[in-house]
């Protein structure tokens, strides 16, 4: 009996050490995604944009739960282990929600990106021509996307060169500086060899799809691992209850 309980206790400790590592990984992935692709993720203004924040929060919870689980296992404290198991189930539910959101969103990424990017580039042009503050945020987002993904407009430079209002002000061969690799501000010419002629629609959609796939894979893998943790916690609680449990 004691040997089995010690084995379960050891397995739970090992699991929680892994959980601490998983928590740090979730925090790192969420923070990197938010930092690197924040503007790109916000382009559709959808629920999916909150996924990096969700990953960071879940990571913190898993990290804390890892320490709680280790402490409860070492002390063989049934109350702590029950709390640990309940909180782990809550985290599992959070990860399941993130998984479901990602699965639902992934099927409509391209349509959402096209509609949102069309609006944002239109507001970019409005800001360039009118300098109205209401369009400034959209202009900054589009600039960041074009610079980060090395792209231009929705489907290419034609977003600007074929726009009558843009043409009337800048001419048919001028695009924003963020469309070119070697120009840091202002505008650049389509005759410049370093202009990025590829549109942003496909690139943004692919980036969002890759991030959705990452979240799906991480969530699915962690859910399976944490189900094992819930089972181990329940079994150890049961073993401790049989022997009488220690108070903190």
Describe the structure concisely for a colleague.
By secondary structure, this protein is an all-alpha fold.
Please provide a written account of the structure.
This protein is mainly α and 248 residues long. The protein is built from eight helices and two strands. It has helices at 2-41, 51-75, 78-106, 109-130, 136-149, 158-161, 164-170, 200-243; strands at 174-176, 187-189. The chain has a two-stranded antiparallel sheet with strand order 1-2. Helix 2 packs antiparallel against helix 3 (78-106) and helix 3 runs antiparallel to helix 8 (200-243). It is rod-shaped and about 85 Å long. The model has no long low-confidence stretch (mean pLDDT 78).
Keywords summarizing the entry:
248 residues; mainly alpha; two-stranded antiparallel ribbon; 8 helices; 2% strand
- Overall strand count: 2
Question: What is the general shape?
Answer: rod-shaped
| Order of the strands making up the biggest sheet | 1-2
As residue ranges, the low-confidence spans are none
| CA-CA gap between termini | 23 Å
Overall average pLDDT: 78
- Strand pairing plus helix content: what structural class? mainly alpha
Strand content: under 5%
Task: Describe the main β-sheet briefly.
Answer: 2 strands, antiparallel
Reading the helices and strands in chain order gives HHHHHHHEEH
Write the layout of secondary structure elements.
Layout lengths: L1 H40 L9 H25 L2 H29 L2 H22 L5 H14 L8 H4 L2 H7 L3 E3 L10 E3 L10 H44 L5
Antiparallel strand pairs: 1-2
Helix pairs in contact: 1-2, 1-8, 2-3, 3-8, 4-5, 4-8
